[in-house]
Specification:
GO molecular function: ATP binding; ATP-dependent DNA damage sensor activity; damaged DNA binding; hydrolase activity; zinc ion binding
CATH superfamily of the largest domain: P-loop containing nucleotide triphosphate hydrolases
Strand content: 15-25%
Protein name: DNA repair protein RadA
CATH class of the largest domain: Alpha Beta
InterPro entries: AAA+_ATPase, DNA_repair_RadA, P-loop_NTPase, RecA_ATP-bd, Ribosomal_Su5_D2-typ_SF, Ribsml_uS5_D2-typ_fold_subgr, Rubredoxin_2
Number of strands: 21
Radius of gyration: 27 Å
Keywords: ATP-binding, DNA damage, DNA repair, DNA-binding, Hydrolase, Metal-binding, Nucleotide-binding, Stress response, Zinc, Zinc-finger
GO biological process, one term: recombinational repair
Length: 467
């Protein structure tokens, strides 16, 4: 035996994570890359050359890209305008959409409504439920008005039976609720496990692509809000949507975190009622309570979700603290962002809140994710500390820097137009913004946080000189 052969025989086999593909020379219980437990398994030595070679000619020859037809690849609207907005116009034939969300948020209700509308237009829809009985789904369909002759219902948990239904019914749309409840008899493991979810997803995706059949999969989420199951599930599907909302409130929001056929920054707004779920085309009033009133501790900003401007009311409360480390509690606002803004206010605006508990929240369960709301958070905190309300009809838009300056934000004109439509007459914006004020609105440019507080009139007269 040659020396090279002996080295190959002695080469360690290695271990690989089934979730993310991370490799290691020794077995470990937890993946060092994705931090998942029990996903590292032994694998054989990597081959020195390719294992797959061409054995037969291609069934469909390659063609010039200009000769490829596009009629069959265009999105078909679902009939739910807010859902179509997130998807990029509708469902593309052969596309696989994963809709993930917490239990009870309304995923099944939304998809049953989509299935009923599609069936009402003459399309053949197969709704497979692995979590509820057929009778329970039928009662929900009756309550939301989704009883249609073209809507076929099956309650199954076996993958082979589901594929049999697809072969027999040949639907134009498949809804699978949920991917974690379906299991294959050919694969070891419990339903929802890594191997089962991967097998179910691969089989459903193959059926969707071969038939140009759009598929919507319902997925569970973990405690931290990520999609349950192997990470490869999100890579296999074409669209990943997150269904968000507080189960104690009626507002629901759908965001696309991955979309091969459309934008990933759009958001759809829905309202969950006793009779089903309905899209909200103008959700402006859902996120404001005292928009135009003189209430201390409040300030309004305009956030941009995709191409949709949404007004958000920021509320703040500052009370004396008896703790060595005062509380900084937030709801809908990033806590680290609030801590940074309070530090900038202390250093560059002369406002000390180190002896007070500060609470900051949004209205209607909205979530602030962009820096354009920094100025509104600062003004709301300042107003809460001084008990002086901001000037009536004021909206604040701007990012706060660590040196106290205000930085410009993108698409300011669209935000100002929405504020003017809602009745705001004053807008505090970063200095240097080359935007024309909408009719009936006055632009108040500010170069720094201290000047913005002066313009908002949130400090008492006796303290303004010190700002």
């Amino acid at each position: 035996m040659s020396s090279s052969s002996r080295r190959t025989a002695a080469q360690p086999r290695g271990f690989r994570c089934s979730e993310c593909g991370w490799t290691t020379a020794k077995w470990v219980g937890r993946c060092g890359e994705c931090q998942e437990w029990g996903t590292v398994a032994e694998q054989g030595a990597a081959p020195t050359g390719p294992r797959t070679v061409a054995t037969s000619p291609a069934h469909t020859p390659a063609r010039p890209i200009a000769d490829i037809p596009v009629e069959g690849a265009r999105a078909v609207p679902t009939g739910v305008a807010e859902f179509d907005r997130v998807l990029g116009g509708g469902l593309v034939p052969g596309a696989v959409v994963l809709l993930a969300g917490e239990p009870g948020v309304g995923k099944s209700t939304l998809l049953l409504d989509v299935a009923g509308i599609a069936a009402g237009t003459g399309r053949r829809v197969l709704y497979v439920s692995g979590e509820e009985s057929a009778g329970q789904v039928r009662l929900r369909a009756e309550r939301i008005g989704a009883l249609q002759a073209g809507l076929l219902l099956a309650s199954e948990t076996d993958l082979g039976t589901v594929l049999g239904h697809i072969e027999a019914e040949r639907p134009d749309l498949l809804v699978l609720d949920s991917v974690q409840t379906i299991a294959s008899a050919e694969v070891d493991g419990a339903p929802g496990g890594v191997s089962q979810v991967r097998e179910v997803a691969a089989a459903i995706i193959t059926a969707a692509k071969s038939r140009d059949m759009p598929v919507v999969l319902v997925g569970h989420v973990t405690k931290d809000g990520t999609v349950a199951g192997p990470r490869t599930l999100e890579h296999l599907v074409d669209v990943v949507c997150q269904f968000e909302g507080d189960r104690h409130a009626s507002l629901r929001m759908v965001r696309a975190v991955k979309n091969r056929y459309g934008p990933t920054d759009e958001v759809g707004c829905f309202e969950l009622t006793e009779t089903g779920i309905a899209g909200v085309s103008d959700p402006s009033g859902l996120f404001m309570s005292h928009a135009l009133a003189d209430v201390p501790g409040t300030c309004v900003t305009i956030s941009l979700e995709g191409r949709r401007p949404l007004p958000l009311e920021i509320q703040a409360l500052a009370v004396p603290s008896t703790l060595a480390n005062p509380r900084r509690t937030t709801s809908g606002v990033d806590s680290s962002r609030l801590a940074m803004i309070l530090a900038v206010m202390h250093r560059h605006a002369g406002l000390r809140l180190d002896s007070q508990d500060v609470y900051v929240s949004t209205i209607g369960g909205a979530r602030v994710v962009e820096p354009a709301a920094d100025l509104a958070i600062a003004l709301a905190a300042m107003s809460a500390a001084t008990q002086v309300p901001a000037a009536r009809g004021t909206v604040a838009i701007g990012e706060v820097g660590l040196s106290g300056e205000l930085r410009p934000v993108a698409t300011l004109g669209r935000r100002l137009a929405e504020a003017a439509r809602l009745g705001f007459t004053r807008a505090i914006v970063p200095a240097g913004s080359a935007e024309v004020a909408p009719p009936g609105m006055e632009l108040l440019p500010a170069s720094g946080l201290a000047q913005a507080m002066e313009l908002a009139r949130v400090a008492p007269v006796r303290e303004r000189s010190g700002l």
